[in-house]
Predict the 3D structure of the following.
Amino acid sequence: MNEEKKSLNFIEQIIEDDLANGLTQDKLRFRFPPEPNGYLHIGHAASICLNFGLGLRYNAPVNLRFDDTNPAKEEQEYVDSIKHDVQWLGFTWDKELYSSDYFQQLYDWAVEIIKNGKAYVDDQSSEEMALQKGTPTEPGTDSKNRNRSIEENLALFLKMKNGDFEEGSHVLRAKIDMKHVNMHMRDPIMYRILKRHHHRTGNDWCIYPMYDWTHGESDYLEQISHSICTLEFKSHRDLYDWYVDQVYDPAKLRPKQREFARRNLSYTVMSKRKLLQLVEEGIVTGWDDPRMPTISGLRRRGYTPESIRTFSETAGISKRDNVTDVALLEYCIKDDLNKTAPRVMAVLDPVKVVITNYPEGKEEWLTAENNQEDESAGFREVPFSREIYIEKEDFREEANKKFFRLKLGNEVRLKNAYIIKAESVVKDENGEITEIHCTYDTESLSGSGTEASQRKVKGTLHWVSIKHAVKAEVRVYDRLFTEEAPDSQKDKDFKDFLNPDSLTVLEAFVEPSLKEANVLDRFQFQRLGYFCVDKDTTEFHLVFNRTVPLRDSWAKMEE
RNA sequence: UGACCCAUGGUGUAAUGGUAGCACUCCGGUUUUUGGUAUCGUCAGUCAAGGUUCGAGUCCUUGUGGGUCAACCA
């Protein structure tokens, strides 16, 4: 009953203020506007969760709008992946829209703007125009084409549209103010000539509208009430407003742009350019490499949509630059999987144990709970026999009292099975232990209710029966970079900080029940971590990805 | 030598002029057939200096520090 009221973030605050000042709730409408030029990453997830979260909170529609105004970079493949990722995250958009849907409307409006004397065709080189643009501290100078007649502009713009000019030879510019303190207001380009095939409009157009000209008008057309973007667009706001002013009908809703800080994660990079570089240079295996901060990478790694939503919610939003500790993301997935992932046993670095007083040829199928955190998860049967594998690091010939695991002369419990005692070891010519000989307490079976079964021993180990074990490839991932903020180190390239050990491939043994596992099924390998079945799995070859290890306070004690 | 944005524990955020709180991380205790989980606890913060006010993290001024802005990218 603690009616603790959740505080509003600053965007919600703005909306509440607008509502208090007369905007009605039914006018609220949002959008998520990715450019289909790459895969979505965890930073986009923040924006997705923000926009769709607002939609849920205010019962308002949220459009998925592809900002596809640059045919040179955009592809259908990216459109498909983005739709998949948004759905996978658990959100439903109202309308699927494309900026390219508005090319004709934008063109018609541009003609009107020319007729109003607010735009002109410039045929200078981009170098000349850049020179005239000035700098943040110096005003720009007017183009020699700035005062072309309306008729001439109309004729030239038509020729641009008709493909009569070469790429790069002409642009349409808004006539605003070359001396404006805001560089974006110094006669920005509205259209450029691009003789490229567009993934949706094909070859219908050879002029394409720029982002600024497109975005506000698209928001206006869709009657988006709050157009939320990241901080680097702050200085575009003046232009956004100027463009909306050119077509605004006061009877309609006027969209407003508001900006928040993009979410950065420690030990990774987030820019599409850099992620693309990792993919193209083969540093990772693809956009969905489990080490990538992409939604598809996290999905393949074993992250749940729920955990990513919780992460976004917990990290919150603000207007300051940030680098969120990846430990928070890892906490979110561990917390989720702890409640939902079935427990199984797998040995990643095996050493053989022979239980000398266990009859040769005998096998038992023992009962094991699937999830101690969830009674409804039920039980399964796990085979036990005379020879088993345990982890190498779970045995020492000698150790101090802090070491709760198996050592000569000492007892441990095998999870869901018996208590065993290490009696001797067999070594090869190099002194490497090849077998550990143990005896077991025949009365100590877990759950049997006997006095011996209730005995307290300090350590409990996971294990697999050698005879029944299934071989599996296990891919153990570590952070991709060794530096918290790899892309903000002065004079250094982010790739200087690549972690050479970000992937370790192990040949492991897992309990037989895992033979039935399907791609993306998630498990806790007890005492080790959370793992999921990779898509590389075939009928004959099981592959697991380690999502995240369990907290290991023993490893910490060991320094 | 400009304009704009930002500044709260190690990290991410809250406090809307009135008790600086939450989560993660770190460290420690208890419980435990996972050295997991759960649970209890410890350490730790308002960039600085002035001003307004009964009262300032919050408002004002000036500094300091960080970021953004000059693609025919978005």
